[in-house]
Amino acid sequence: MKNPKFNEKFNKIFNLELYQNNPSDYVHSHVDQIISLLLYAWAIANKPQSPKDTQIVALLLFISSESKGLLEQIRTGEGKTLILGLTAAFFALCGYAVDVVSSNRDLAIDGEQKCRTFFELLKLESGHICSENDDINHQSYRPDLSTKQGNIVYGEVGAFQRDILEDEFNNKKIFGIRYKDREKCLIIDEVDNMCLDRARHVLYLSHEIASLKWLETLFINLWAAVLRTEVNNSNEISQNIEDISYFMKKNIENKNIYVSEYLYDYVDYKLKRWIDSAFQGRIMREDDHFVLDIPKADGQNIQKHRTIIVVDKDTGTEQYSTRWSNGLAQFLELKYRRKLSVESLKAVFISNKTFFQRYKTHLYGLTGTLGSENSQSFLADLYNVQFADLPTSRKKSYYRFPSKASFEHEDWLDSIARESIQQVKIRPVLIICENVESTENIWNELIRHGVPPHTIAKYRRDGNNIEERFRKKSCYKR
Fold first, then answer.
1. What does the alpha-carbon distance between residue 154 and residue 60 come to, in Å, rounded to a whole number?
2. CATH number of the 210-341 domain
3. pLDDT score recorded for residue 55
4. Are 227 and 220 in contact (CB under 8 A)?
5. Are 141 and 176 in contact (CB under 8 A)?
6. Cα separation of 253 and 267, whole Å?
7. Which run of H or E residues covers position 156?
8. What is the mean pLDDT of residues 58-85?
9. d(CA 131, CA 278)
10. Among residues 181, 124, 152, 149, which one has the least CA distance to residue 27?
11. What is the pLDDT averaged over residues 368-372?
12. Beta 184-189 vs 344-351: how paired, if at all?
């Protein structure tokens, strides 16, 4: 986007020798001038939207937090995308390599695209690492070395972790010299979910060993044994695991189940874990813990065959690069008659905690809920951060209806449908479901009550571009 007046103002600042010699010192010593420039740029790039007072305060708090990181609580609807964009731009102008982590791939792509024009006005390079093409993703890490400004990369936490492992352990030189002579800074969306709820989550780079293919016969026999077992309560499962383990070992010793001798120790070590996974797979349901469908990227199918796609129960997003370990993936493939994959071995790994701690005092985050005092104390000790609770930009005008409870599933669905039909006469209705299964059940119940299908926008999977649909037609006339 070209804006002669803005470009003149921008060039007057950033062509200065003081900025070229030390961008960070110059920006921090001229904060009022830089913030004025950022707000002006955002207003040009996003007419008629301008930052609100609370959003400016959020930016100022991030800037003033020098010796520690900062996690801010800001309510839903207060414009986190704008705050993330302003903060990323400020630290990129300081010369930092800025990484922005979202809770899923779709939000990362959307966040970068919404801020791209704003970044371009400030002559900042931005990109995301959410493409199916690794070469395109890796290009996002390569800044223009002729400028002192840093560049900005959006992505989900797993994508950054994978690239770190590939770069540092497999020597793929993904980052080039991006982090070599620059400070690095991490800005996190939904920080409580990733830093607290998922602090123990670990990303592995796995390796498939061809010889483990010979375990297929064992997996089939394990699955058959688990299906034959009667389980009346969860307390019985431990004893069932012991019994099946003993039975399988005897069959392996007697050559009734073939296992190569060089795999004996490995099988002995993993057998009980596999049996436990088989019991888990037996009770796991499609459209709850996972979906059975064709993976999508940017709304396009990336495979021809339906496969098991892990669903994150916290966010409802599909985890295309995630596979369950300890045989669980294989037992679900047997359950749903998919092609049986080979059990993989974990080679190198990194936890969420370790990843976030790499950024030291340059760790910044936003969330709708910071949690209890105990949670905040835990985060402060773990990541060396402090906290801020920001007020809303205006007084909220809403009230809560009395809660209703149903004892039967059919009554629960009926109540939701009747209440929705009543409320939609005067306002739009949003129904947030626990899983895909509930989405389908409520959809069918609304249809049963006579709601026309074309008046219901159903968001069932990643890649369903519901936001674009509502931009074109925000509500339905009744």
1. 22
2. 3.90.1440.10
3. 94
4. no
5. yes
6. 12
7. strand 152-156
8. 91
9. 34
10. 149
11. 82
12. unpaired
Tokens of 17: 């020798």
List CB contacts of 399: < 8 A, sequence separation 6 or more.
none
DSSP letter, residue 66 = -
Whether residue 471 is predicted with pLDDT greater than 60 in this model: the reply is no
DSSP of 394-421, one letter per residue?
S------PPP---SSHHHHHHHHHHHHH
Strand partners, 363: 186
d(CA 23, CA 18): 8
* 225/229 Cα distance (integer angstroms): 6
Greatest Cα pair distance in the chain:
84
Convert 353-374 into a string of H (helix), E (strand) and C (coil): HHHHHCCCCCEEEEECCCCCHH
Q: Which residue has the higher pLDDT, 16 or 257?
A: 257
Q: How far apart are CA 55 and CA 99, in angstroms?
A: 20
Q: Please provide residue 119's backbone torsions phi and psi, each rounded to the nearest 5 degrees.
A: -65, -40
Amino acid (one-letter) located at 428: P
Domain with residues 4-204+351-389, CATH architecture: 3-Layer(aba) Sandwich (3.40)
Query: How does residue 461 score in pLDDT terms, banded at 50, 70 and 90?
Result: low
All residues at 6 or more sequence positions from 334 whose CB lies less than 8 Å from its CB, including other chains:
219, 220, 223, 281, 340
Supply the DSSP string of 45-72, one letter for each residue. Answer: HTTT----HHHHHHHHHHHH--SSEEEE
pLDDT at 229 over 50: yes
Q: What percent of the chain stands above pLDDT 90?
A: 47
What are the domain boundaries of the chain?
4-204+351-389, 210-341, 409-472
Q: How far apart are CA 143 and CA 316, in angstroms?
A: 33
